[in-house]
Amino acid sequence: MNQNQRIFEGKLTDGTIGRVDSVKVWIEDRKVVIQTVDSVESRTLTWSIDETIRNVQSHSVVIYKRDNEDVQLWVDGQGFSKVLFEATGSDIRAWFHGFSPTAKLGLALFSVIFVVVGLWFSADFAARELTRFVPLSWDEKLGESTSKVFAQDTCDEEIRQEFNDKVTSILLLPQERHLVKSIKVLDRPEVNAFAFPGGVIGLTKGFLHQVESPEELLGVLAHEVAHVKHRDSMTTLVRSTMFAVVWSLLIGDISGFALVDPSLIYTLATSQYNRKQESAADREGIKMLYRAGVPLQGLNVFFEKISKKDKMNLSSKLEIFSTHPSDQRRIAAVNELIANLPDAAQSYDEVKLGLTKADLANLKSLCYSSKAEILSASEEREGEATEVLDPSLVVFVSLNANPIPKDALDDDAIRDKEFYESEARRVASLNGLKVIYIKTRNADFRTKNGESFKFENKADWEGEFYMFDGEKSPQLIEEIALFPDGKEYSDYFGKEIKN
Amino acid sequence: MMVDNKLRDFDHLGDHMERYSVKFVGKGSEFAILIVKNLLLTILTLGIYHFWGKVEVRKFLWQHTVFHGHRFAYTGNGLELFLARLKLIGFLILVIAMLGGLGYASSLIGGAASIVFGVITAVVYLLFYFVLLPFAMVSSYRFRMSRTTWCGIQLGVLDCTKEYIKTFAIGGILTLLTIGIYSPILMADLHRILANNTRAGTLKFRFNGDGKDLLKTFIICFLLVIPTLGISMFWWSAKYHTYILSKTFMGNEANGFAQGDIQLTGGEIFVQFLVSFVIIMLTLGFAFPWILVMNLEWIFAKVSFNGKVNFDAIKQDKQGMVSTLGDGLGDALDLGLA
Question: What is the ipTM of this complex?
Answer without folding.
Answer: 0.82
